[in-house]
Amino acid sequence: MLIPVFVSTPNALTTAQDAAHRYLLGELGQMGFEARTLGRTDYPTSFPLREVLTLAKHCSGGVVLGFSQFEATAGVSKKGTPYKRTVKKGRPELFPTPWNHLEAGILFALDVPLLVFRENGIAGGVFDNGVTDLFVHPMPKVNVEYAEKKALRAVFHKWAAQVRAHYYGER
User: Fold this and answer.
1) 21-57 pLDDT, tens per residue?
2) Pick from 82, 35, 77, 75: which is nearest to 59 by CA?
3) What is the Cα Rg of the chain in Å?
4) Nearest by Cα to 9 from 41, 51, 33
5) CA distances (Å), 91 to each of 30, 34, 75, 82, 121, in order?
6) Domain segments of the chain: what residues?
7) Pairwise CA distance, residues 83 & 137, whole Å
8) Residue 132 has what pLDDT?
9) 146: helix, coil or strand?
10) In terms of CB atoms within 10 Å, which of 39, 63, 68, 80 comes out highest?
């Protein structure tokens, strides 16, 4: 029997993002987990946020995949404050789907083990180091060296042990 884990990911991905997504789902499957995602494996019958909560309650772990979904080439952040920051020409600001933050918050509140990945350039909210007690991992590349793949598997194994403990009520 596969253990259900909630995967927070956008539904629309580039070819490279889709390859990373499939790679990570493959790793989950090899470890005996069933990836559950609203809009991919499960479809809402009521409003989507309620469905996220309902689905997440039936999962023993969560994976948040911070893929770029919006790119800003101009703009000012925190205008009028000492923390004002301007988007520089040639260095666009990248944003994940806002659903990553909502779903991560729900999973965090449900106290399930979380694993967070982000593409290079994704920051803010759950993707900032130190926001939770989690380490935010870089999005793995599909064609990684053996050492990188081994390190990623070690991360998955540690998280998997926590997910299994949650599933079998050993927490």
Assistant:
1) 999 999 999 999 999 998 777 776 778 899 999 999 9
2) 35
3) 17
4) 41
5) 38, 37, 11, 21, 10
6) 3-167
7) 26
8) 67
9) helix
10) 63
